[in-house]
Amino acid sequence: NAGVTQTPKFRVLKTGQSMTLLCAQDMNHEYMYWYRQDPGMGLRLIHYSVGEGTTAKGEVPDGYNVSRLKKQNFLLGLESAAPSQTSVYFCASRPSDGYYGYTFGSGTRLTVV
Amino acid sequence: RKEVEQDPGPFNVPEGATVAFNCTYSNSASQSFFWYRQDCRKEPKLLMSVYSSGNEDGRFTAQLNRASQYISLLIRDSKLSDSATYLCVVTPHSGSARQLTFGSGTQLTVLP
Question: How confident is the model at residue B94, as a pLDDT?
């Protein structure tokens, strides 16, 4: 059982380039989330999804777009990367019932130069 | 004011010591509480949920004080392997997505 898988694990982009981060989970979880983590800032929610075909903005959505075309996948897109988007990106998922914590992916380290 | 506040530390303690972390939250409607552990350059992992009556898991004890809006984590008989950053986590309200709000973390180093 793989849990939550993020690809790629590392990426270096030039300013203005675009890319898509993929998150895949095999636990049949309804809820999926994208966070970014910066030193001293903790984890901040970018976007989230409560089910297939639905997305919503989190705390820091600007510069990012997301899609959830399939229940198991949650994609995070950067249309025009900026150095301020240099960060570690974590995807997480959880079931819709009960009060359970998240399962996280192992993260994507993105550097924008 | 941040929704969840933690002392960033670092806490440097000798092996075998007892150490406690506190965390305060601002939203009195918060419903669920957790402690996560994050090792350097790794993803956060759920350490334990925090229940109203307090709960224990081996050397770890978590407490919730709703009146004062804080949660605590006590680690007894610290091991070298306990060195990590400990994240305090709450659900901000009873919204349908139940997204979690994370504190910035408290860094613990257990010294030999």
Answer: 55
How deeply is A56 buried, as exposed, middle or buried, from its count of CB atoms within 10 A (0-12, 13-18, 19+)?
A: middle
3-state class of A29 per DSSP? coil
Instruction: Kindly determine whether residue B102 and residue A99, on different chains, have CB atoms separated by under 8 Å.
Output: no
- Predicted confidence (pLDDT) per residue in A71-93, tens digit: 999 999 999 999 999 999 999 99
Number of neighbours of residue A52 by Cβ within 10 angstroms: 14
Residue A65 near residue A40 (C-beta atoms within 8 A): no
Which of B25, B99, B100 is the best substitution to test chain A (most A C-beta atoms within 10 A)?
B99
CA distance A71 to chain B (A): 15
Interface contacts A/B by beta carbons within 8 Å: 50
Q: How far apart are CA B90 and CA B101, in angstroms?
A: 5
